[in-house]
Amino acid sequence: MDNFVEELRQETRWLPTEETEDESVTNAVVPGIYLPLLPKHFNHPTNMAVKSSEFQKVKEDCLCCIQDALLQSQWQRAAELMISYLEILENTSSEKRVPSQEEIWRIGTEILQQHPRSNIDEINYFADRMKSLGVKRYLKISLEHAFHLLCSGFVDEAYQNLILTESWRYGEETVAQEKELKLVQAYKGLIDYYMWLKKKTDLLELDEDSCTQTSLQQEMQRLYQQAKVSLREIIRIPGVWDPFVICYVDLLEHYEEYEEAREVLSDYAYNSKFPSNPNAHVYYYQFLKRRRESRKAQISALQILHELVPSHELMLEFYNLLKKSKKRKKHKLQLKVIFAVLDFAVWKENVKAWSYLAKQTVEILQNSDKQFHWLKKEWDIRKHWWPAFHFSLYLAKRNWQENKKLTCEKVLIAGILLGKDCKYFKYVSKEGCKVQKKKFRQLKKFVKEHSWVGLRLADT
């Protein structure tokens, strides 16, 4: 930047001395651009003959300073810098004007939302001005304006803003922003749902013979119809629409439109046009569970969730559903599910998960060789990293000190999979014999009787 300033001054110094009156006016030294709180070299006399590219460079440096202020949460400094940066809108080049407006909208919104002394009137004024600068971003700016109003607790104002936005039309630009318009309608529907929910709560608090009950029910019905129309439109478009789907299904279930709710959730989960979304399968499973649908249908929904997110919190429910099945392949999947769950750190200290694995492992060993290859297959995938991940000496000491119930479940698995010489097993069984001698003697005996398991599992 210093080099740029020096070049600028040299250019001024070597200007011709003989010039016309017009040229004299053009090349006159005028007050410098003042950028508050910038380094001193920004404050210098600026010659009107300076090329626009050099002026643009100063502005880019100003933008960097604004970004720095934003990153450091210096909202007042950022606001002062923005005053200078607004001059960029005077650039007559449409190619440069559009991105500049975009930057001012995004940065200005962030400053106003975060500045401790900003108020809703200033935010409304800024949003209205930005909407008038360019129709190509009208709907996006209106949506963001509505979001801020909602976050600030101005629900009615946000709703009115969305109603006005929904009615906006501007020739071909309306068609170009059709998706944004659908989103505006969807958020209006979301507010309708919110108001419906409030009316529902009010209704539950009333006495059954209250005279206001009928009017509340009518108001709820009106809001339901409005929300239903708006929300239905957005969820037909391929995308991830979790908040809208949840609200829409809640409305349908309240009015006992179960078949439509099922169709919506099924389409959201299984339609190939929609992006892969684990939550879609969660919502569908929860609906099936509420409706007490068949175990087969519930397993089908959770099986896809298992493939997408094997560490999901619903996997223990999935495990129990599989356990109730009489089919052998479901029991095989059951073992795969519980092993997969314990692959993730979030489940490392889950007592229930280790308990399930320990119990099924014992059942497999007691079932002769019919299911042993299931265990071998799962262990082969993990034998090189599970010992350090789950069964180190450090973990043995920590688990024993912090959670003895967890340790008692893990030690059985360690002894069976890795043998009696496993550090985890040796430490825990030694410490356990000091406090529960009988229990740990039985454990050691069981592991010794099944010492062949470790040898067979070690075979490649």
TrEMBL record:
GO terms for cellular component: RNA polymerase I transcription regulator complex. Pfam families: TAF1_subA. Coiled coil: none annotated. One of its GO terms (biological process) is transcription by RNA polymerase I. It comes from the Eukaryota. InterPro entries: SL1/TIF-IB_Component, TAF1A. This is TATA box-binding protein-associated factor RNA polymerase I subunit A. It comes from Thamnophis sirtalis.
